[in-house]
Design a protein that fits this description.
elongated; Helix Hairpins; about 300 residues; mainly alpha; three-stranded mixed beta sheet; 14 helices
Length: about 300
């Protein structure tokens, strides 16, 4: 059925109007191809999200294998440093505790020295001590050990590929007229501003905030049966899922940063208002995403005035 917009609206009136409009006019809106710059940005953005999703799955597998082959790696490479390039290279080469136990200390030191690691002398000694006292769940000849080595290499490659794509997206986004305006919003960095432009394209193609929220799937679901209308449903989620993710993360970061710095910010004030109304944290952040969209659209519209 011909649809006039992407809103997730199911009403008898809307259906009848669309069918009548299609019958009498038999024409569709002329498709306007976006500029090549925005097409390239969108292609890079989708590649970024695809690789990022694959990388997250690989990291989960990687962490599970570490627990089996050498659980003390979590103590050696604390927090997210276990995903650092030097940690991944080391675990790829030495994926099991017994392999490290059977390796001379000078060989381990040479590895860190080649990677320009600051504590190249002391770190291998600590690793060797952990390896000697470790009790892995699998034998060093187990196939899971080679799996860990392979996964560590893949995670490293994916992370490097993602970094290259992030650089390309930021480089291209800086050529657009919207970059500086979006980047000027408190809590939005260069990459977040770039990925927003990559997903929204030419933002001025949206006539009003309703079209923009519908595109992002943040408009409320509308249910109608006869004369009964419910316009206060949950968000439709019918639009761009990547934009919803970007906006959610951006608003969460703004609220977190403002909470630490104690600076006044309209997004954080709106979040507190929703929380005081009794709304859940997630619902409050989603409400803030719509407010952030309004701010984005207003700033970009000003450029064409």
């Amino acid at each position: 059925m011909h649809k006039r917009n992407i809103r997730k609206t199911k009403t008898d009136k809307e259906d009848c109007f669309n069918l009548a409009n299609l019958f009498f006019t038999n024409t569709f809106k002329e498709y306007i191809k976006p500029e090549q710059l925005y097409l390239d940005l969108n292609a890079l953005s989708r590649q970024y999200f695809a690789l990022d999703e694959l990388c997250v799955n690989l990291k989960n597998r990687y962490r599970n294998l570490v627990y089996l082959c050498f659980p003390e790696y979590e103590l050696i490479f604390k927090n997210n440093t276990i995903y650092s390039s030097i940690a991944l290279d080391f675990i790829e080469k030495y994926p099991h505790a017994n392999i490290i136990s059977n390796t001379r200390i000078d060989c381990l030191q040479n590895f860190f020295k080649k990677h320009n690691f600051k504590y190249w002398k002391s770190k291998p000694i600590i690793i060797k001590e952990y390896a000697i006292n470790s009790y892995p769940s699998v034998d060093m000849n187990d196939e899971l050990v080679s799996n860990l080595s392979q996964i560590a290499r893949l995670v490293n490659e994916y992370q490097k590929a993602i970094d290259i794509i992030k650089y390309k997206i930021t480089f291209l986004a800086k050529k657009t007229k919207y970059f500086e305006s979006i980047n000027s919003i408190y809590g939005i960095g260069e990459f977040t501003a770039s990925i927003i432009i990559a997903e929204l394209g030419d933002i001025n193609r949206f006539n009003n905030i309703k079209e923009l929220t519908a595109y992002c799937g943040l408009d409320p679901s509308i249910k109608q049966s006869g004369k009964s209308v419910d316009i206060h449903g949950p968000i439709s989620k019918a639009g761009n899922k990547y934009m919803r993710k970007i906006l959610y993360i951006a608003c969460s970061n703004i609220v977190t940063i403002v909470g630490k710095t104690k600076q006044e910010n309209d997004i954080e004030i709106y979040y507190r208002k929703k929380r005081n109304e009794g709304k859940h944290h997630y619902a409050s952040i989603v409400a803030c995403t719509t407010k952030l969209l309004r701010k984005l659209l207003a700033l970009c519209k000003q450029l064409d005035m």
